[in-house]
Write a structure and sequence with these properties.
about 210 residues, alpha+beta, 8 helices, 5 strands
């Protein structure tokens, strides 16, 4: 009985040590790269770090990763924040970025994010024109005038411009990619990143390791 109690008491310590070893095993150049010029990011009050996912609605890898992203957000440690950033490399990226901020400013449900992915990859509607994006929003119950007003608003344009600057500042090479605290990038194709899902795990470990940096 006494031995069993000792084992149970030691489990939290063993878990903490295992997590620490995992964090310490992360290596620059293998699991992440440090940005030569850190990106200016805002860490919410009460948080020790922030993780940004760079995505594009037209990216099949982002679409396939989204279920893992949803689970990741649900299980994120309380001291970390998470935000999605629409990566911007071209006009269609900019269009989809405006769609992302439009549904947010219109206070549409979070499920709209997945719905846009599904519209592209399930319904085969690539949403490459403003008219196509408008039709999608109208189908979701948003009056066309309300959509146009918000889609072309100063607020949406400002947020999209900030996303463009963040994409450039982070030297994003493709999507999905993950940034930690505006200082470190975790990307598929790196020697220590086995999958896109692995990016999320590594980003969380790195964020915990660099907490409060």
């Amino acid at each position: 009985m006494f031995r069993r109690i000792l084992v149970l008491l030691s489990l939290p310590i063993m878990t903490m040590l295992f997590t620490t070893v995992q964090a310490q095993s992360l290596q620059e150049g293998t699991h992440y790269r440090a940005l030569s010029s850190p990106v200016n990011v805002s860490v919410p009050r009460g948080k020790d770090g922030i993780i940004h996912e760079f995505f594009w609605y037209g990216c099949i890898h982002c679409y396939n990763l989204e279920p893992a992203v949803i689970e990741f957000k649900q299980n994120l440690p309380d001291n970390l924040a998470f935000e999605e950033v629409p990566a911007t490399f071209s006009e269609v990226h900019e269009l989809h970025g405006k769609a992302f901020y439009t549904w947010q400013f219109l206070d549409m449900p979070d499920s709209t994010h997945q719905a846009i992915y599904d519209e592209i990859f399930v319904n085969n509607n690539d949403l490459r024109t403003e008219r196509a994006v408008e039709a999608f929003f109208v189908d979701k119950g948003i009056p066309a005038e309300d959509f146009r007003r918000m889609f072309n608003s100063f607020s949406v344009q400002t947020k999209n411009r900030m996303a463009q600057n963040m994409t450039a500042g982070a030297q994003v090479r493709g999507t999905p990619s993950v940034m930690v605290n505006g200082r470190y990038m975790v990307e598929s194709g790196m020697p220590g990143v086995r999958s896109n899902e692995d990016m999320l795990r590594i980003a969380q470990e790195l964020a915990l390791q660099k907490a409060g940096e």
